[in-house]
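Late entry, written up from scratch paper. The run itself happened at the end of the previous shift, but nothing got recorded in the book at the time, so transcribing now.
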Amino acid sequence: MRGPPTSRPLPPLVRPLARAARRARRALFGAFRWLAGRPAAAVDALGGLGHRRRVAALARSARQRPPARRPRVLAIGAWSFPLPSQRFVYEELAALGRAGFDVRLVWSRRERGVELPARFAPLAAAGLELAPAASAGAADLAWFRATRPARLDALLDELAAATGRSAESLVARREVRRALSFARLAEAARADYLHGYFFYEGGLAAHVASRLLDLPRGVTCYADHRLADWDLKAVGLQLRAAALIVATSRRIAEEVAELCPGASARTLVKPNAISTAAFPRRPPPARAAGESLRLLAVSRIDPKKGLVVLVEAMAELARRGVAARLEIAGGVDRGSAAGAAAAAELDRRIASLGLERSVARLGWLAERGVVEALARADLFVAPAVETPEGDKDGIPTALLEAMSCGLPIVASRAGSIPEAVEPEADGLLVPAGDVGALADAIARLARDPGLARRLGERAAASVRARFDVEVCEPLLAERIDALVRGRR
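Output as recorded:
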């Protein structure tokens, strides 16, 4: 009868390998146990792993691209995608894609439940996710220290000089490390051109990548270049380093020139353009005698939008016996404390003035919802103001969309609005923050439907001639193409 099987001793040459395998197995199980007890660390580690895999996949794909490839543009604005308040960014990038560029928009968080117009689907399909993991940023810092130490040191020194922070404190910042991860994506993708929107984290990321990789970079300027609301903005440094500066109005181009003498030669004045095909001209809605005038405002809830002024004008119209109803479409951008405070103040004013029955807050609307709201409105109101901090509007996209639909416009002379609305031709302009003047202009159009119709017709023609994507966006494509060709 056989006894129980006995294990045979391993050959001498195999024993070290077996011991190493046992140590690796114990280390792996130990790491799993450690991560299981620290959910945040586990999520971060997984995010870092996903980032490294995306970088490797991008690098493999980039190596296989044909020599006669399309120029690749990496763009970054907000870390979330899609955002209803940034349709103007997607409009511009979609136009670049149609012009022949390989456009990749980078984001960190994909928003769910936000409807995206079909013309932006290629942006979503080709987008790149950037993990916000601390481990990814740490690894990418080590990568650039090993591969581009001189460039990294120079970048940190100039950023330290511009922000008043030490280089050591900068590399510890989450925003800087995420910017390094964006640079790593751009390097792996073999980008030809980088573009950033605003001077916040996205702008910083584009600047960091541009300096590390020696790539041409553009920045689009709206209003935040005047605001001292983030310690790493370094607006002057970013403007000096940018190969292309896009000013969304003539006023903004003048402000950029003041901030950065010599920037004019690199500045393109190009407003946020819209797809007028998506906002077709509609006949004025029928309004029975005595029926309330239907007003519409479309904007995110923010102090500079002046919505409290509009609500107070509604109360003034009621005191004058002018029947009017107002719809406000828009919400608060994620993480905006100023927007949340403005929304709370707006609701308080509506309640205190007893306007709950005549003012409706619609929240964020998908594009088709905006089109439907424009179709049932009699006129569009843009009551923008300048805040005490100096924040003011450029040319609001929603204003152009309303003009495209043929709505008569009542707007304030704030920011760059007068560059889009010619008084008494495209609409009526009033002093910013003047409740009485705003109520006067609205009442005037209520009394004179013929004037309202003429203003709407002229507005529809004007926006198609000056602000359509097919008119404006080729200018940007030409400038980017020249920068890319200059490097080849």
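The chain has two domains: 69-273+470-487, 276-467.
(Scratch paper discarded after transcription.)
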